[in-house]
Amino acid sequence: MDQIAAMRVFARVVEAGTFTRAADLLQMPKPSVTKLVQQLESHLRVRLLQRTTRRVTVTPEGAAYYERISRVLAEIDDIEADVTNAQASPRGRLRVDIGSSLANRILIPRLPAFHARYPDILLELGVGDRPVHLIGEGVDCVLRGGVLSDPSLVARRVAHMPYMTCATPDYLKRHGAPKTPADLLDGHRVVSYFSSRTGRYLPPRYERGDERIEINGHAVIAVNESTAHLTALLAGLGVAQTFAFMAQPHIESGALVELLADWEPPPIPVSVAYPSSRHLSAKLRAFVDWAVEVFAPYGSARRR
């Protein structure tokens, strides 16, 4: 038995919650994963996992073993990374999860430069606004908007994204243009956004000087994905707040009209984050540093 390989497989099963998911993340046949865990249990003469048809549960002995080997495996990765980095550029598979609008409008168009700099990194990009469980889903890091409150994550702020309030010319012909945020409560329709994690609606917010206001207008549609939110806005379904960088091309083309420009919505912070328990490998460090460069033009909280 390759004990280090068996330890890595056991750790991944604990993190993934099932043998099937662990096998997918490790890109190994499920029977091989099962066999290595069984060999490890036989070697240790203790049951590490309780199996059911749907999920595995860690025994008390397995939990204690996992906690200790996690530190050992991280130390091994540190040693290997130090040796490897002295001889070669960062390499290997890197799984990154990112919101849809940030991916499609900012990150993906700049990936050729990343691959030119780091040709040996295979980047797997999970795109969507759904929150992910980084360890359980085998994700190395995430790029997300909003305040990250998870204490298990190390977060690095990379940008502040300003918002715009917009509507289509056709919508404004039918409903008129609001002069103040309060006008959105009188005969206007709102394209709302709701959180994929909590299901809570995120109402438009406005600031002007010391004034702060939040508008819970009449929503005709609510979506939980930023690109679809913009599509609904462009369809003329109502007034909406969207990222300024997404709206600006449509403002310039005339497809959208900016509203309430003297009431600036508070910007949203964007961070790159990874688990505090995850070894900051050369490939992860390279991506994080590159992401900081990519989002540097968006570091200001003001509109561009």
From TrEMBL:
Gene3D superfamilies: Periplasmic binding protein-like II, Winged helix-like DNA-binding domain superfamily/Winged helix DNA-binding domain. CDD domains: PBP2_CrgA_like_3. InterPro entries: LysR-type_TF_proteobact-type (IPR058163), LysR_HTH_N (IPR000847), LysR_subst-bd (IPR005119), WH-like_DNA-bd_sf (IPR036388), WH_DNA-bd_sf (IPR036390). Residues 1-59 form the HTH lysR-type domain. Transmembrane segments: none annotated. It holds the Pfam family LysR_substrate. PROSITE patterns: HTH_LYSR. Keywords: DNA-binding, Transcription, Transcription regulation. Belongs to the LysR transcriptional regulatory family. This is LysR family transcriptional regulator. It comes from Variovorax humicola. The lineage of its organism: Bacteria, Pseudomonadati, Pseudomonadota, Betaproteobacteria, Burkholderiales.
